[in-house]
């Protein structure tokens, strides 16, 4: 019998499915629940155990990991008579890897503590590719002892794993991450349109730019999307719109000015309003093209 902790995984979307599969590959027993039957079938095919309810998933788990879209979904799966807090065993560790508001994480940690559960907020960066390759950056908020206990699990999912402070700190750092990523993608998109309208070989230009100070992980990950106009979602505009709302509100709360971030947040919102919310966030290129008079 394995001595590794038993894991319950709630939320098997674009990120959750490959992440849970990486834990299975690392030898963990993973019991999963999500709303989509095809995702449950995928988990079973990978060697996990699919169940029909949160209660069944978490009942015998040592560690419960959640990866859902936003604060309302975290609250829905955590609270109430059918939620995690009602059915997880005392002493279990809840690791929420969703990207939500810092206050939601703080409130969850307090409510879980009252139920005898430990909590870490551990949002990630790296997108679908990072999840598949197990090279995510994981920013964690919570207690040092809980972080130390969770580290072997997190090391099966990511490459850069850092405890950033108390509960909510992981979400605060993730909000900053999303601000940087959005502004970076917007700058790359503007450069692409500028280069194309100037008649430059776009592939050659992006290759040389990425080898200099303008290079970034964002450009490395997204330049093929720009070149092929391939906007199949790795991280949807809808979700980045949600995250820009989080960082804007959090910055307002602490009194931090985000002049460039505020503009990019509006550009993300406008792209969503034009029906592109389901596309990858590299589709910010489409917004720049529209503004530049290019037919999209």
Automatic annotation (TrEMBL):
Q: What is its EC number?
A: 1.1.1.60
Q: Which GO terms describe its molecular function?
A: 2-hydroxy-3-oxopropionate reductase activity
Chain ranges of the 3-hydroxyisobutyrate dehydrogenase-like NAD-binding domain: 168-287
Sequence similarity: Belongs to the HIBADH-related family.
Q: What name does the UniProt record give this protein? A: 2-hydroxy-3-oxopropionate reductase
Q: Which residues form the active site?
A: 174
NCBIfam families cross-referenced by the UniProt entry: tartro_sem_red
Query: Lineage of the source organism?
Result: Bacteria, Bacillati, Actinomycetota, Actinomycetes, Kitasatosporales
EC primary class: oxidoreductase
Q: What are the residue boundaries of the 6-phosphogluconate dehydrogenase NADP-binding domain, all occurrences included?
A: 6-165
Task: Print the keywords alphabetically.
Answer: NAD, Oxidoreductase
